[in-house]
Amino acid sequence: MNDHDNPLDQDAPCDGCGECENDHAAAAGPHAMPHDPAPPAPRFERPDRGTVVRGAALAALSCVSFFAAVYTLNRWGQMAAPLGGLFGTIGALSMWATFIHFSGGEKFDDHPWL
Questions:
Q1: H or E stretch including 60?
Q2: What residue ranges do the domains of the chain occupy?
Q3: In percent, how much of the chain has pLDDT > 70?
Q4: Dihedral through CA 36, CA 42, CA 43, CA 49, nearest 10?
Q5: What pLDDT is stored for residue 16 in this prediction?
Q6: In the chain, fewer beta carbons within 10 Å around the N or the C end?
Q7: Whole-prediction pTM value?
Q8: pLDDT score of 42
Q9: Average pLDDT of 71-95?
Q10: pLDDT score at 43
Q11: Read out DSSP for 61-99?
């Protein structure tokens, strides 16, 4: 009598012999990898030319926006604080986008539709 003859013992170890009725795919669980994992991505990839140009344009926008914020607050004082805040926010967000572009951009390969 081998380990597959006992119908009550569904947890019996099996090496995929094809003789038993244990569902080996279900036993692996829903998160089992159907293939080997992908090789790791290179540590650093140089961004393409278009990404660098867009990053430089965003850096220029950031500098101009910060200059406009400081100039607006110095020229018109506290009455222009909302406008200066708007320029400062534009400068901060464009600097953030600059860093994203210069570091190689965002990777969207964790989503199955992209």
A1: helix 49-76
A2: 49-102
A3: 62
A4: -140
A5: 56
A6: N
A7: 0.56
A8: 73
A9: 94
A10: 74
A11: HHHHHHHHHHHHHHHHGGGGHHHHHHHHHHHHHHHHHHH
Q: What is the DSSP string of 3-43?
A: TTS-TT-TT----S-SSS---HHHHT-TT--SSPPPPPPPS
The 3-state DSSP class for residue 49 equals helix
Give per-residue pLDDT as tens, 96-112.
Answer: 999 988 887 776 565 55
- Gyration radius of the chain over CA positions: 29
CB of 12 closer than 8 Å to CB of 4: yes
Measure CA of the first residue to CA of the last residue in the chain; give whole Å: 53
**Alpha carbons 70 and 20: distance in angstroms, whole number:** 77
CA angle 54, 56, 61 (to 5 degrees): 95
The overall average pLDDT reported for the chain is 77
